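[#protein-structures] MJ: dropping polynucleotide adenylyltransferase here for a structure pass
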Amino acid sequence: MGHILILPTMVGVAEIVDFCDFLSPTPEEQAARDAAVHSIFDVIKYIWPACKPEVFRLFMIGLYLPTSDIDVMILESGIKNPQTGLYALFRVLSQRGIAKKIQVIAKASVPIIKFVEKKSGAAFDISFDVDNGPKAAEFIKKV
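AK: finished. C-alpha cells for polynucleotide adenylyltransferase:
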C-alpha cells in the first residue's frame, strides 16, 4: 500500500518578503550604522593614514540583522604586530570616548578588538591585515 504524505501549508512569497522586511534594518538603523562606520574609520585613518579599512562579511553585502556585529579589517597598515595595533586603537577609542565595552582579544588565532560605538550602539570587531574576508564577501556578491 502506498503512503500518503501530508505536508504543512507552504509559506507564500508575500510572507517570506514580509519576514525579510521585518528582519532587515530600517533606513534609520542603516544610517546610524553607516555613521558609526565612518566615525570608526576616521579614528583608524587618524592612527594609520595610509591604511585601507574595509567592512566585510554580512554588513558589506547587506545581509545582516540589526543586531549583527560590524566586522572591519585594517589592510595595508604597516603594522608588524597586530596586538600592538589593537592596543593603539584601544587607547585612541578610549581617549575620544566614542566606544564602550572595549576588549582586546590579543591571544586569538586572529587577534581582534571588540567594542560598542556609543552613539549607534553598533558592535564592532576589528582585525588587521588578513584580506580573505573582503574577498569572500565579493565572491558571495557575485553568486
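MJ: nice. Confidence is low (pLDDT under 50) at residues 131-137, 139-143.
AK: one more thing. The domain at 26-142 is CATH 3.30.460.10 (Beta Polymerase; domain 2).
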